[in-house]
Structure prediction request, 286 residues.
Amino acid sequence: MHGGFHLTDTFWQFVKDRNVSSLDLSYNMIMDFNRTAFTENCDSLTEISFQGSDLFWLSGDASPSPKPCGSLRFLDISEITLPKLVQSICQITIPIENYFPIKILIKKVIDFRNVETVLFNQFCNERSTIVLRNITIVKEDIECNVRWKNVSLNGVGLKELDIQMDKNLCFDNNHTTLSLNGNIMEFINPSVIHSMGKLDTVDLSYNNFAYMMTHNTSLFEILFLSKTLKYINLSYNKITHLSHNVFSQCIYLQTLNLSGNYLEDIEFHINQTLTMLILDILRSIF
Prediction:
């Protein structure tokens, strides 16, 4: 299409009529995206990628569809360039703090409740700084029908994630993978990890959790109090030491990556697990 793609009702009707299941629109110019037409004609789609695309205009109704994209399981909106009218959110420090309690209105903020893998990597192309501080979330507005399993927020400029999560949040019930690497993170509330009852993989690499270890030691020590974790990546976080019991509850841990830190010694206990396969401390002992 001349000058880029126009994802209007004609395009999305074509997708529906041809029963398209996989749609890759990565690294394209999208001149217009009609959200209403998309949600009305996306039932055949199982995966869709907008990675690296330039989005110039959003049209259609902004209200989420009651049952949008029922077959969709994979969504990638990493590295997209937003329309100029909303680009400002990616160029400022975003402090959100001292909100409690908060009720999550899932129907209004999540349009893809059946998706299992959601990739938001470099969503603002690392131009923003996001601070979420002293926030308490109480409950949601719907039953537990959010299927998100693998969530990736790599390189989005996240600095603090201080959210007190309810362990009964159905929004977190299915999460198995949480990836937050390549941010500028200095703090994460342990309840974020603890609330994910099925979480087995957490990637916090390429951040600055040495700050949390130094200034919020007691909370850092309970960060991994989860018996479901199998893979932990804390590489390249400027960490100098770890307490004896920081991984003591990880009885099914298989891979622990501490490479690229400044560890002076290995003192933490990992003998409680018989499943450990990989301990990576490359370039980590000084």
Q: What stands out?
A: The two ends are 57 Å apart (CA to CA). The first helix runs from residue 9 to 17. The chain has two domains: 1-72, 73-280.
